């Protein structure tokens, strides 16, 4: 009788242990929720909410618990350093061959190419100069000079297309005030169509040039540290699913709206640039 009672008790204990440690199954998929902790920074406040929301919502939709710690704004060089040192988990940048060697690219474009459709921030009194620009040759002949931040890939694109530019070291936010002041020999600041409306509001002493749309083939991507293959795969899978589900398009519309109408893109003169 005692042995029988012990066997029943043992059976019950084993059954409880199996229940506690067996993953819950829904249909044919095993639901094991994982937590991902990400340290994030940005180079400016402009548009960071879109990138962080896309990252978080895509991971949540793919079944992850997500904790994001935003550590504030950093320069591009400091972001690179922090990524190497595991102080931040991911950055978003234009795709470049050099960057693809430095880091692991999560191979899903983040703006549907909007970042590579560029309009210009200029001083209001400069619009009459730009009215006569119809193509790349006109930009070259007029000796109009663009402003870029330190080591931006835009500089390589402009140099490849024989366009004048100046690079500013350090904080790229000072470009806005430098352009507005007219003290430096710069004529325009090329900005993605998904960036320029917010920046124009923040800098009312500048205006959006009315006629030109500078275009090249590229997009922004998430990058992770070279050895973080696991995170790269997780983010890639989540973003692919976000595109398939419509989440990606929903967030593009939510954060940037109808840019074609707001910036009158269809009526602008296109200046096509070659990639290096």
Summarize the structure.
With 276 residues, this protein is of the alpha/beta class. The protein has helices spanning 2-21, 48-61, 76-84, 97-102, 127-130, 136-141, 153-160, 174-181, 196-202, 229-245, 247-256, 259-263, and strands spanning 24-26, 29-31, 34-42, 64-73, 91-94, 104-106, 117-122, 145-149, 164-168, 189-192, 207-208, 212-215, 220-224, 269-272. It starts with a helix and ends with a strand.
Structure report:
By secondary structure, the protein is of the alpha/beta class. The protein folds into 2 domains: 109 residues, D-Maltodextrin-Binding Protein, domain 2 (3-Layer(aba) Sandwich), CATH 3.40.190.10; 111 residues, D-Maltodextrin-Binding Protein, domain 2, CATH 3.40.190. It contains 12 helices and 14 strands. The strands form 5 sheets. Strands 7, 10, 11, 12 and 14 form a 5-stranded mixed β-sheet that branches. Helix 2 crosses helix 10. The longest helix has 20 residues. It is globular and about 55 Å long. The N terminus is likely disordered.
What kind of sheet is the major sheet? 5 strands, mixed
Instruction: Spell out the helices and strands N to C.
Output: HEEEHEHEHEEHHEHEHEHEEEHHHE
Overall domain count: 2
So how many helices?
Answer: 12
Indicate the percent of residues in helices.
40-55%
- Indicate the overall shape: globular
Radius of gyration of CA atoms, rounded to a whole number: 25 Å
| Number of DSSP E strands | 14
For CATH, the homologous superfamily of the largest domain is named as: Periplasmic binding protein-like II
User: Could you give the distance between the termini?
Assistant: 85 Å
What portion of the residues fall into strands of 2 or more residues? 15-25%
Structural class category: alpha/beta
């Amino acid at each position: 009788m005692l042995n029988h009672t012990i066997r029943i008790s043992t059976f019950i204990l084993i059954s409880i242990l199996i229940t506690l440690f067996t993953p819950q199954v829904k249909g044919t998929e095993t639901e094991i929720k994982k937590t991902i902790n990400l340290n994030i920074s940005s180079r400016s406040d402009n548009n960071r909410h879109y990138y962080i929301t896309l990252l978080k919502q895509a991971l949540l939709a793919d079944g992850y618990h997500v904790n994001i710690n935003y550590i504030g704004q950093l320069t591009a060089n400091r972001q690179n350093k922090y990524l190497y040192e595991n102080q931040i988990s991911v950055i978003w940048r234009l795709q470049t061959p050099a960057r693809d060697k430095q880091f692991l690219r999560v191979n899903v474009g983040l703006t549907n190419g909007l970042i590579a459709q560029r309009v210009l921030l200029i001083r209001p009194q400069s619009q009459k100069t730009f009215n006569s620009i119809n193509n790349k040759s006109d930009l070259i002949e007029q000796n109009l000079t663009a402003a870029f931040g330190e080591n931006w890939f835009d500089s390589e694109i402009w140099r490849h297309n024989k366009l004048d530019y100046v690079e500013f070291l350090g904080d790229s936010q000072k470009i806005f005030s430098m352009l507005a002041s007219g003290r430096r020999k710069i004529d325009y600041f090329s900005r993605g169509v998904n960036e320029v409306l917010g920046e124009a509001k923040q800098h009312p002493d500048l205006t959006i040039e009315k006629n030109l749309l500078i275009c090249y083939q590229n997009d922004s991507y998430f990058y992770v540290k070279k050895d973080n293959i696991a995170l790269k795969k997780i983010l890639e899978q989540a973003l692919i699913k976000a595109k398939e589900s419509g989440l990606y398009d929903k967030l593009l519309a939510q954060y940037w709206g109808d840019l074609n109408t707001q910036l009158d893109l269809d009526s602008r003169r296109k200046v096509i640039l070659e990639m290096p």
